[in-house]
Amino acid sequence: MSYRELTYWRPVCDDCGLEYVEEPWDDEPPDRAWPSPRAALETARADGWQTDGETVHCTWHWHPRCAGCGRTEPVSSLGHLEESGWDIGDDGTMWCPDCL
């Protein structure tokens, strides 16, 4: 029997250890691992995870820092930040309510 070892990647939240698994669409199975760290992070980021290339945070553990004034807030969920008036761009750039 022949076989080949494969290496795949999956983002893991640095705060709580939650592993990212893409939500399924229609009848397609979800992606559970990616062929490169970059592909894994890009997919997770598009689904609301925060990453700066060094750290990864799930949607419950965002580390906000305003791109305008540098203001920071305690770790918070993405939903709470948006409800509090923070604007988060598609590229992850964050703006506090005072800088909007």
Automatic annotation (TrEMBL):
<protein>
    <submittedName>
        <fullName>Uncharacterized protein</fullName>
    </submittedName>
</protein>
